[in-house]
């Protein structure tokens, strides 16, 4: 049995070229493999054995020189193996040379084996150190990846919590925006009603076209509604701006969360990679590529700034919702109070106009009755005048006939005196009757004129009552309630 590395017997007459005396140092071997590509994983399954080295050592044995001053003859001066003696015996070396050569080979073999054992120990230690260092380095990288995953999960949870809160706040602010829009639209009806009431009251006639308390309250209501509409519009513009800020903050959160999810997926995939995992490849020069854009401090600060911006937007949104709720309550209460004042003024005015109308109707009835009675009296006076005129005619006819008495018969007797007195009395009575007739006719004209005034005033009052009670109050009955103004329906 022959050992590996043991010099074999020479099989050739000519010697082989000398092999290297010693193996290269460990650091030289390491330096030689520094820029070499590592073996593929499948190469680890093959048995390792330096066959090439041992074959070279086996096929090229050499002998060390005997002394430093006798290096040996070159291959060209070797004496050919030809016997010059007669008996054919030729001796190249002595027995001492043979023993010394053997001892030298033994020592060189021991030295070589010792160096090989030391090299194997160094290689075993180096391989163990390489494996331990690789395991430690890979473990540290895996640990760092795990810590990074934990950081990403923490910020993901913070982003999810803030994003849910922002979504709820945005939805609440959107509901408030819809309430504001409905409230602003609901103020259009009362504004038109008040404006139409003013226009309808311009159609009043005569003395009823006055600047009464109803008109003043209507003007005040229009001013209040216009002021409320302006405040609601300003608040709606602010809400729209805040919704845009909330939307921007939400988009930043969603973008950051999406980036975190992708980063978490990639880091988790890297965390689960092992030496036996599939899909691992060489990417030469990837370690020299620095595609990073942040450091852990700026990375955490970026997400923290997004959360802080979202929290600030949520706080502003909540404050705006509270102020909007207060504005809705305030404007609704203000408009409702003024609406009640206008209705009270209308009710009072309608009652006052109705009372005036009732009194006018009473006076008109009395005036008509008086006219009727006065017309009857006038007719009686006229009949009396006619009767007196007939009586006057009789008396004057008598007097005229008595003037035709002859001579002494023309006596101023009692009959003559009485006839004269009767004529005078009848004339006086007729003058009085005519004077009474004229006075009655004048009074009748005054009564008729008063009747016309009362009738016209009654028409005016009826028109005012119709405008205030039917048109104005009829429209104001459909005024939206406080619930509608607040935007709850």
UniProtKB/TrEMBL annotation:
It comes from the Eukaryota. It is found in: Cytoplasm, Cytoskeleton, Cilium axoneme; Cytoplasm, Cytoskeleton, Flagellum axoneme; Cytoplasmic vesicle, Secretory vesicle, Acrosome outer membrane. It is a peripheral membrane protein. The keyword Membrane applies. GO terms for cellular component: axoneme; microtubule cytoskeleton; nucleus; outer acrosomal membrane; sperm flagellum. Its main location: cytoplasm. The keyword tRNA processing does not apply. Keywords: Cell projection, Cilium, Cytoplasm, Cytoplasmic vesicle, Cytoskeleton, Flagellum, Membrane, Ubl conjugation. InterPro entries: Tektin-like, Tektins. One of its GO terms (biological process) is cilium movement involved in cell motility. Pfam families: Tektin (PF03148). Belongs to the tektin family. Microtubule inner protein (MIP) part of the dynein-decorated doublet microtubules (DMTs) in cilia and flagellar axoneme. Forms filamentous polymers in the walls of ciliary and flagellar microtubules. Required for normal sperm mobility. Microtubule inner protein component of sperm flagellar doublet microtubules. Interacts with TEKT1, TEKT2, TEKT4 and TEKT5. Interacts with CCDC38. This is Tektin. The lineage of its organism: Eukaryota, Metazoa, Chordata, Craniata, Vertebrata.
